[in-house]
């Protein structure tokens, strides 16, 4: 909640998570920041007298929303190129980022508000008009943009890029939206609802099936279902940038000089909520990499786990079965190099396999090799060949919603079902490729139990030569705190007890799942 809205309700704002530069100060009609304290003025000018030009920062946000809704684009890929194209300065880039990401994340809530203000189903609106409205709503309810500026600038944008007719409609609708504050809207939208999932879905802008899945995952991992609010809020906030210095190869000194702070969970990690990464030579060289701390921890847990003593003679062979684009492969490669081990990084998609090679470029060449192929064949092609195997399985990514503002609306429950057979086949292939006594780490950046515990249970149920290691303890052993609480010891189910789940609202990481399976 912004201070402009202070003193109103403390109900969280689903779109207010990513406060860029423009989100922390007032901006005037032209999109420039001002420190002057203005009230929540309603515009008095008629639409025809208002701005006819599109403010570049709002135009960028609008173009991002259009690319996402009409071309299935990824916001995090489109945004930087639109910012460059329109030559936004740092401040306007911050405003555009906040506007685009905020409007995308909070789309569920905003569409529910808009549905009350438009005299026809939203599906009958021109999609460009709907995107302009979403941008307008975000400014009105989640940013410190005075109402008159939000209205004037959004109508100006619509007039410039859609046309005069729609701009009148947009003006009329946004005036209705502006008549109430967000808490009033939420109260109105949830009045009479008794289903907690529906209420959370509206208040925190997540599809109902995702709210249901996350509640189920919390409970399966022995956590309180009441944590769902904190988890959904964490999904709606912008993640800080996490760095890792590749062990033996990189140093964080330069990052610390640039304002990064030491990470509290993983060794050789650093955090920052801002800063220009491009300025860091170590990042350009690839010896320091951007990587979520959860990903760092699961890779380190696999590298650190004790394997049986017969395997310890000679060089260990490691396998990263689903390596693209190579984040964990780079960290594992550096750890392998330190331990005198060698790693094969496998990825079926040629352009992603190239990214894996680039990620590994900073690691001594004799330590790694990249295979471009289907991971399901590796178990047959290389039976009982590896000491440690990572299966970072293709998944729905429901644990990384903070990073991908549009993905919650794009993902479907059917994706979970569709990915299930592939996840099982990849884990089965990994178990064929690992040597007896060796360990397979099954990892997902989704906490959905159909992608995590159920996959592990299904694959293990069919065989007697596998045992689960304590993944929570393995994470603790490589963490700086030694007490992450990611293990599920309070769970009543045996499989759940031995697996581990990191959470954005507790660990400030992506919701990474880890199971460690030893082949006997
Ligand atoms: C979650 S991502 C892996 C992320 C990677 N480990 C990292 O840290 O950068 C899953 C990867 O699995 C790959 N994949 C999809 N189908 C696969 C298959 N049949 N065999 C192996 N990998 C596959 C995808 O292309 C994707 O790059």
From TrEMBL:
Biased composition (Basic and acidic residues): 25-36
Catalytic center residues: 445
Gene3D superfamilies reported in the protein's UniProt record: NusB-like, Vaccinia Virus protein VP39
GO MF annotation, one: RNA methyltransferase activity
Region Disordered, annotated ranges: 1-53
Record-linked Pfam families: Methyltr_RsmB-F, NusB
Positions bound to S-adenosyl-L-methionine: 322-328, 347, 374, 392
Any one biological process term the GO annotation gives: regulation of DNA-templated transcription
Similarity comment: Belongs to the class I-like SAM-binding methyltransferase superfamily. RsmB/NOP family.
Full protein name: Methyltransferase
Organism: Arthrobacter alpinus
